[in-house]
Amino acid sequence: MKRYLTIQKQVGETPLSAIEKLRETDTSLTGIPLAYAGRLDPMASGTLLVLVGEECKRQASYHSLDKEYLFEVLFGFSSDTGDVLGIAQRDTADVSLDSSSLYKAAKSLIGTHTIPYPHYSSKTVKGKPLFLWTLEGKLNEIEVPTIQATVYDIHLLDVCTQTMSDTIDHILQKIELIPQVTEESKALGRDFRRSDIRTRWNELKKGHETDHVTIAKFKIVVSSGTYIRSLAPIIAKKLGTAGLAYSIHRSKIGFFTKIPLLGGFWRRVY
Questions:
Q1: Does pLDDT of 193 surpass 90?
Q2: pLDDT value of position 182
Q3: C-alpha distances in Å from residue 221, one per residue of 80, 148, 198
């Protein structure tokens, strides 16, 4: 039996639900322990590394894997999660975004940065996930932990504009892909706060349906544990505006070797 395999997690799925779907479709995995190495947020899609059987006991040895992502940044908006599944705000500052400025802002990210964990993340602090500290309004009682995130390489792939109406309608469609959460134990999160998030996006759209927004697509290679939804606002800030992760897709998992001035190469891909 294989020690691991890879599957494609879809937008709206959690890593756990993706594994449960795998087990349902592959009867050879019945009764065999499965675990994922490297989680993906509900709004993210892409490669999920699944450990099989006894390999689950070696899960910690997979924690240092580098990742490649394709992601889009929606400029002119921010949210408290860094992606579309958050309470959004609009930045009305008039900022000109062109390929040259976007390229420079992206390339300036290359290197190692100390970045706070997203407030809405599963990082444990004093035995409790950070998102629970946030939902309970108790962030002032703890020190938000940070992570050393290394950006090995990043490329600007595309820049486009589209109407506010099309953009927000697409966001709302993606939000509805998450199965409804009804467990009483998760009542504090109120189903990912979906009702409030949906209401806020519709408020931002009202009266601005024909306005145009800018979306840039990037390919990035980063160290283990790097949150793409933390990098999206940083790119936007370098350009004098707000930004959030409009889409995130993980395309590779493995070991990346950086070569100064030449980019780098993947030594191993799972």
A1: yes
A2: 67
A3: 24, 14, 32
Average pLDDT of the chain to the nearest whole number: 94
- With 80 as the cut, is the pLDDT of residue 230 above it? yes
Q: Which residues contact 114 (CB under 8 A, 6 or more apart)?
A: 146, 147, 148, 149
Which range (25-39, 121-135, 149-163, 184-198) has the least confidence? 184-198
Dist. CA 160–CA 157, nearest whole Å: 10
Band of residue 1 on the pLDDT scale cut at 50, 70, 90: confident
Q: How many Å apart are CA 243 and CA 234, to the nearest integer?
A: 8
CB-based contact 221:266 (threshold 8 Å): no
Q: How far apart are CA 33 and CA 158, in angstroms?
A: 41
CA–CA dist 29, 1 (Å, integer): 10
Residues 258, 264 contacting (CB under 8 angstroms): yes
- Which pair of tokens denotes residue 214? 């800018």
Q: Using CA atoms, how far apart are residues 141 and 20, in angstroms rounded to an integer?
A: 36
Q: Rounded to an integer, what distance in angstroms lies between the CA atom of residue 16 and that of residue 269? A: 22
By CB atoms closer than 10 A (0-12, 13-18, 19+), residue 129 is middle
Handedness of CA 169, 174, 176, 182 (dihedral sign): negative
Nearest to 107 by CA among 160, 155, 67, 157: 155
